[in-house]
Design a protein that fits this description.
Blueprint: H1 3-28, H2 36-50, E1 60-64, H3 67-71, E2 81-84, E3 102-106, H4 112-115, H5 119-122, E4 123-128, E5 132-138, H6 149-162, E6 168-172, H7 175-183, H8 188-198, H9 202-205, E7 211-213, H10 221-231, E8 236-239, E9 243-248, H11 251-271, H12 282-291
Parallel strand pairs: 7-8
Antiparallel strand pairs: 1-3, 1-6, 2-5, 3-4, 4-5, 6-9, 8-9
Helix pairs in contact: 6-10, 7-11, 8-11
The structure holds 1,3-dihydroxyacetonephosphate and zinc ion.
Length: about 300
């Protein structure tokens, strides 16, 4: 056998080896649509839509995943394409702490009501790189990450510093919270105090209160930087006349935070124009926060 034949034989064997390895891998990988984190994203998006928080493509979610868990479903060496980190000014926003981390993220322009029926088109699983994200799954048909990804990533960094177990950042446009923005002073202490007064357990659910940003242009670096700054002390940040950001360890915690604010805002909007006869007193809120052992913003109460 000549040298060329020998060489061809080696190439053939190598190619067969690679094909076999790829086949073995695909056989051992589980179906991504059955992954608990994909199901959780679908269920949450549907709930958010049904709550009326996410009209059209309003809102976005990012969820930090565990690499080992993702590897049960996807070949992490198979990057489908790279998506630039749009809207990011590298001088103000250094993604280094998140490089290599994997997130599942809603797609820009995608309707929340459609996510559950077609997660592969409306969601993406991405790994953060220096100036881009590597797409590992999803955004079928050429989709991209939410336009709010810079704000989400900055919030993740801020919340991970405050709580290393933080995994979820969620943005939405809840109706009554937004309505309240138009008729209530946008002062963090006063706004939080009013919300706490609306349901007994509010102070225990968000003892850290609600941060507020004035109206700002969304999708930009600046709003991301400002939101992340607020997230150093709050898990909830209102974007005036736009919506709300929530952050938490789990999808339930984060959803529950926004849900509780929205419930309180709804009660406010149902009663603000009526004479107030009864109220929860500051001393009572203090009693409750202390019973639940909450690290609450005592400076947001008006105690004698
Ligand atoms: P995306 O469709 O880019 O996620 O934007 C929705 C939104 O709510 C912007 O603030
Ligand atoms: Zn929005």
């Amino acid at each position: 056998m000549g040298f060329m034949d020998e060489l061809k034989g080696v190439f053939r064997e190598t190619e067969e080896g690679i094909n076999k390895a790829a086949k073995d891998l695909s056989r051992v990988l589980k179906d991504i649509k059955s992954a608990p984190f994909v199901k959780e994203m679908c269920k949450t998006a549907s709930n958010m839509y049904r709550m009326g928080w996410d009209e059209r493509n309003g809102g976005n979610i990012s969820y930090l995943l565990d690499e080992k868990e993702v590897a049960e479903y996807l070949d992490l060496n198979n990057v489908l394409r790279k998506i630039p980190l749009a809207g990011v000014n590298a001088a103000e926003f250094d993604v280094t702490p998140l490089i290599g981390k994997i997130f599942i993220v809603t797609g820009t322009g995608k309707y929340f009501k459609n996510i559950e029926d077609d997660p592969e088109t409306n969601l993406g699983i991405v790994r953060i790189a220096k100036n881009s994200v590597e797409l590992l799954w999803g955004y079928k048909g050429g989709g991209r990450t939410t336009s709010e990804l810079p704000a989400h990533l900055m919030c993740h960094m801020a919340r991970l510093n405050a709580d290393p177990e933080n995994r979820v950042v969620m943005h939405s446009h809840p109706t009554h919270t937004l309505a309240m923005n138009y008729v209530h002073e946008l002062d963090e202490k006063k706004f939080t105090h009013t919300l706490w007064e609306m349901c007994t357990e509010c102070i225990a659910v968000f003892p850290d209160g609600v941060g507020i940003l004035p109206w700002m242009l969304c999708g930009t670096n600046s709003i991301g930087v400002a939101t992340a700054k607020k997230m150093e002390e709050f898990r909830l940040v209102i974007w005036a006349m736009h919506g709300i950001y929530g952050a938490g360890k789990t999808m339930d915690e984060t959803f529950g935070l926004i849900e509780t604010v929205e419930k309180a805002a709804q009660i406010y909007m149902l009663t603000a124009h009526l004479p107030r006869i009864n109220t929860i007193k500051d001393e009572q809120m203090k009693e409750l926060a202390e019973l639940f052992n909450c690290n609450y913003r005592i400076d947001f109460l008006n105690l004698k």
